[in-house]
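Section 3.1: Structural characterization of target chains.
Under the original work plan, the team committed to producing a structural model for every single-chain target entering the pipeline before any wet-lab resources were allocated. The record below documents one such target. The sequence was received from the expression subgroup and is listed exactly as submitted; it comprises 469 residues.
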Amino acid sequence: MRDVLYYGECLEGRADFLTGFLAEHRWRVHPVTTSAAVVVDALDSIKVAVGLIHLESIERVQLRLLESLLRRGGDIEWLIVLPRQFTKDPALCRFISESFFDYHTLPLDGPRLINSLGHAYGKAMLKTKAAFPPVDFSLSLLGRSEVMQQLFHQMEKIRGVDTPVFLGGESGTGKELVARLIHQHSPRRHAPFVTVNCGALPPTLIQSELFGHEKGAFTGAGERKIGKIEAAQGGTVFLDEIGDLPLELQANLLRFLQEKTIERIGSRQTLAIDARVIAATHIDLEEAVGQGRFREDLYYRLNVLYLKLPPLRERAGDVELLAEAFLKKFVRENRSRVRGFSQQALRIMNRHPWPGNVRELINRIQRAVVMCETPLITPADLDLERRLASRALLTLDEARQIAETDAVRNSLMSNGNNISETARQLGVSRVTLYRLMEKLKIEAQGLCQRHDGGISPGAKSDEMRDHWT
């Protein structure tokens, strides 16, 4: 027995005849015969794959009702029965051809209708099998707050399409993790996910890194190099800190987005690339466009589907949830005997503004697990006791400077004073990091950079980027 939703604006006797005819052919009919508005409400409670609209006459004023009905029942395959006279109206003909699986004119051909309903039902079942099951993103990106539930809902809506996605939000909110989750739950999940940190690449190498080069294209090009965009063929390329991309290279990226082709440096061969683009930045790109630092046409190409990641201070109730998850991880990794947080520590964590967002929370808990000498972590272990005591005496600029100073110092320490790794962890370019260190009067001994052969000794890998929740 299969189900069909039936909406009819016709003589009652004819409606009864048609519903009876469908029932004889093993269709369970759910009739709604009053108005299209009632049908729209019924769609919330009746789950069917096929719908049938039966009209004795049709006027322009009804089209708006039918359009709302079809939009609300977007997953239903619709058929319509109506008078032959509709073919005299071009606008109505276009609406029928674009909106319905099939149409039937009066007088009705019963066997043909049954056959058509069967085909519509089969197509609906194929669509159901092809659709992705809903994803519970909260299993990977912990959050119970309302703003996070809204983010999960938006991620669910965009994961199955190929449209470019732009991720905004402060540093430390987890933009790379969100991009990776969108890819992992998309039709492209079996192809590569390639990350490009546009702020960490030297200007002289960024074009080669993005688009590749041929052997001999320039001094030092001893062999062909496949660029990041080409390496993402069939998958997703994540352009992190897109706001730091030099203007001269923004034109090349725009050409790729428009034409889906690239050319390696030193080659005249055009390569077709099928890769979805997800871009992210912590800066205000609209402001950058207004200041002439970012191309307006590229901004609109990237900013088709926009997701803003909420800062931790706006995620009511999520701090304790995240803190407990990170605590379990670090206790297990460090074989620590720490059992939990003191009540005072929980109160202070819930009141702290978290200027460094989730990244700052990770850093403080990781430090606390190592330094704690009691079973319960205290505010002093988190280095938050002093901040809480002095917060009322500080101006906003002073509090921000203290938070920035701690974030930079802690990141430098955890990364062995490696500037490239520290800049990547803080979500800024190396130039921005140097400016911050100068502004905050931070000195670090034995600074090291990332080299082609890897990270120099003393630098620490940023494993936590793969474990953000």
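The radius of gyration is 29 Å.
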